[in-house]
Write a structure and sequence with these properties.
With about 180 residues, the protein is mostly helical. The chain has one domain. It is built from six helices and no strands. The radius of gyration is 17 Å and the shape is globular. The protein starts with a helix and ends with a helix.
Length: about 180
């Protein structure tokens, strides 16, 4: 088998892993955001509410880029996946503090909330790792392509991405109404 064939197979496998990680991440995001809705729109500070709401744009955007196979999707997965994973850890898995905190440590959180936040953190990390693998398999030279905006709009036309975005919009609106 030639090096080109091995490289092509490695790139295809890494692209499949990246798409699977994006789907798992999207499902975990809906689960976690749904848990916030279950807890009540006013269960978090305004800082956490608006920061988490802004994160939805990144979450939907990266999933759209991955599922439309945008050339820079692996880099977006690395940047967004790891950044959000760190953010989830800081907000949910560090002791309570006055700024940007919805701490689930300290014994007062329900297990469903801990599991939902943990799954979201794990899948965000997996998305970042899948992005690293895809970049290694493809190389950085293949990251040019159509604009992000066009790719995200194309992604929103896909049923899975559209459902993911719609679920988050509904959760946001119901949470906002409960504040």
């Amino acid at each position: 088998m030639s090096d080109v064939t091995v490289g092509t197979r490695r790139a295809v496998g890494s692209d499949q892993l990246l798409r699977a990680a994006a789907v798992a991440f999207a499902l975990a995001v809906v689960l976690h955001n749904g848990d916030h809705l279950r807890r009540g729109g006013d269960s978090v500070t305004a800082q956490v509410f608006w920061l988490g709401s802004a994160a939805i744009l990144l979450e939907v955007g990266v999933v759209a880029l991955v599922l439309v196979r945008h050339p820079s999707a692996p880099l977006a997965a690395i940047a967004v996946g790891f950044t959000l994973a760190v953010g989830y850890i800081v907000v949910h898995f560090t002791p309570h503090r006055s700024f940007v905190s919805d701490s689930l440590v300290g014994g007062h959180a329900q297990i469903v909330s801990i599991l939902a936040a943990s799954l979201e953190t794990i899948t965000a990390s997996a998305l970042g790792l899948a992005g690293v693998r895809a970049v290694r398999a493809r190389g950085l030279a293949t990251t040019a392509g159509t604009s992000y905006g066009d790719a995200i709009l194309d992604g929103l036309r896909q049923p899975f991405v559209a459902a993911f975005a719609l679920a988050n919009v509904l959760i946001f609106l119901f949470s906002l109404a409960g504040r």
